[in-house]
Amino acid sequence: MTKHLQDTTTLYNGVKMPWLGLGVFKVEEGAEVVDAVRTAIRNGYRSIDTAAIYGNEEGVGEGIRLGMKDAGIAREDLFITSKVWNSDLGFESTLAAYETSLKKLGLDYLDLYLIHWPVEGKYKEAWRALETIYKEGRVKAIGVSNFHVHHLEDLMKDAEMKPMIDQIEFHPRLTQKELQAFCRENGIQMEAWSPLMQGQLLDHPVLKEIAERHQKSVAQVIIRWDLQNGVVTIPKSIKEHRIVENADVFNFELSADDMAKIDALNENLRVGPDPDNFDF
């Protein structure tokens, strides 16, 4: 099991991806995102997750450059993810979107590029574009986000290669067991966005009881639950003490009983849109 912040999972193509990273959804472009990314890298994070639609790729790129300097590390030591937005899904438009993201981030390549949402009738062409840049060696890994089992099955019918990652909403109120099992069977690594349910779980009595017993915070318990489920996770924060706290999850272990109690909180409840029913 993961022992420290820089431990990785190996994707089915052999690429190593850190189990824990920093998410920057809704982190404002400019000083706020620059500082968050720089702080995370300085504190040992090696994985940063952004997206075209977040509108903060330039700041993320700046934070990466400053963080690398602070930490004395090279680009190869980092794992950077971005995502193509719905309006750019299509073969040529996805290729162009990838170039735009690289330019904004100031990078030569991404470690992971994802299709952000399964827009019907559009994601297969976009996937062909991702396969193309992957085969050209211009991205280390490709995947999807917010894909249900039926979306994955549909994509894989025509794809040359299956996604390496499915990044989904995943937290104790939305455990997605069927999707988890499908990903495991197919060698697709699951990744959690909004692992803390945008803060809505932090005063949950069951989680508080488990946290107190382990002398940890509720956030740390949830992140640890992700990791013990074999799910990569990218909690978002802009405060240094929180960024550090979220990574301090490698010195304790949840028991099988703890894990079962947390699993039992599932209500199939989302804070984000349902991938079967969104209109953007």
The radius of gyration over CA amounts to 18 Å
Give the CATH topology: TIM Barrel
- How do the helices and strands follow one another from N- to C-terminus? EEEHEHEHEHEHEHEHHEHH
Read across the widest sheet, the strand sequence of neighbours is 3-4-5-6-7-8-9-10
Helix content: 40-55%
Report, as a whole number of angstroms, the end-to-end distance. 38 Å
What is the level 1 CATH name? Alpha Beta
Entry keywords:
280 residues, alpha/beta, TIM Barrel, 8-stranded parallel β-sheet, two-stranded antiparallel ribbon, oxidoreductase activity, oxidoreductase, Aldo/ket_reductase_CS, AKR
Care to describe what's here?
By secondary structure, the chain is an alpha/beta fold. 40% of the residues lie in helices and 15% in strands. An 8-stranded parallel sheet has the order 3-4-5-6-7-8-9-10. A two-stranded antiparallel ribbon has the order 1-2.
Could you give a quick summary of the protein structure above?
The protein has 280 residues and is α/β, with parallel strands linked by helices. The protein has helices spanning 31-42, 57-71, 91-105, 123-135, 149-158, 177-186, 205-214, 218-228, 240-247, 256-263, and strands spanning 8-10, 16-18, 22-23, 47-49, 79-84, 110-115, 139-145, 165-169, 189-193, 232-233. α3 (91-105) crosses α4 (123-135) and α7 (205-214) packs across α8 (218-228).
